Amino acid sequence: MNPRIIAARNDFDDQVMNRLQRLADQWRPLALPVIDATPEGVTERDPAPVSALIGASGILTRLDRRSLRAVIALVCAAGLIAGWMWWQGRPRAVAMAPVLTAEGSAVTGTGPASGIVGGDVVVHVLGAVRRPGLLKLPAGARVDDAITAAGGVKTPKALSSVNLARILVDGEQIVVTADGAPDGGQGAGASPGIGLNSASASEFESLPGVGPVLAQRIVDWRTTNGSFRSIDELGEVSGIGDSILEQLRPLVHV
Known about the structure:
Radius of gyration: 51 Å
Order of helices and strands: HEEHHEEHEEHHHE
Structural class: alpha/beta
Number of helices: 7
Number of strands: 7
Low-confidence stretches: 98-117, 184-190
Shape: rod-shaped
Strand content: 5-15%
Strand order of the largest sheet: 4-3-5
Oligomer: single chain
Number of domains: 3
């Protein structure tokens, strides 16, 4: 190693040791007498033990250069660790995630009011269609889909006998009349009476025992719960008891 570097390092070590010695001398307190109370009275004890304890602070000044470097390295490392721990534990601002509001168009319902239960629906199409019979269609399909699956109508006039936009209900029967009369009429192939799923409130008023209030309740039940699946479901309408239901049974159909 270069002799100049060795000499410079030795000078630096001597300066550090001299400064530590001066600091130890400045902070070394004077030896104080220790008073011990005894039964004989108060006497003064030898201050030598106290001086010995205080003199232990001068151990640092009696270290050799290698030991002194080790002590300085340990002090620096402890300072770095303390600083790192303080930096990690300092309070930090936490950014809150923004709340997003999605906007979109309305989605058609799939609850009881829409008549969609889920899965497939099976309907019976008969009358003026090319292939009458049972059909399985996906939930949410409409009467127009059922008629198309049945091969279409035999005459264009027959399309006016049903509501093509109505959503299908599992287990229902769709009657397509050749003369275009509604499925509640008495045309060829039509079921007798009033259709529970197609009649209006005024049509229900023509039934015995059904006034304007009860007719509106039937329409409201159909709007809330979906299409009627059987005539027996009329009994769930408020105001229709067993006696009225038996009177209406031969006059209505689903």
